[in-house]
Amino acid sequence: NEFLTASMELTYSNGSELIDLTIVPNNIEQTCSFTYTKTWYSNKNCIATSRDLKDFEFKTGLNKNISAFNNKKGIKLFLMPAGNGCMVQKKETSFSFDKQDK
Q: Which residues in 62-78 are b (16+ Cβ under 10 Å) and which e?
């Protein structure tokens, strides 16, 4: 009946990912909306990292250093130089997602 927000760390042998998740129920429509952001560091520079992106196309530069990519599902990726590597941020939002089981 109330929204949920959480921050989580997923740890792998090659690094960690930071996940921020928010879920908001719509009890009248029995659906929910969500948004999540996943952030991780790539050891490759951003140009090399962008070459590894499957199903994503360059959309725009946000300003000077950050590049934005989109895919057909509306998922966004942002690449930002960080030292010798690249910070990658994946963002997805969905409104009125699937019926909730009672």
A: eeeeebbbeeeeeebbb
Strand partners, 77: 69, 90
Whole-prediction pTM: 0.81
Question: What averages of pLDDT result for each successive group of 10 residues across the chain (102 residues)?
Answer: 92 93 85 92 95 91 92 94 96 75 52
Query: Residue 99 and residue 26: Cα distance in Å, rounded?
Result: 10
38, two tokens: 């996943």
Burial of 35 (0-12, 13-18, 19+ CB in 10 A): middle
Residue with tokens 């996943």: 38
Q: How many angstroms from the chain centroid is the CA of residue 80?
A: 14
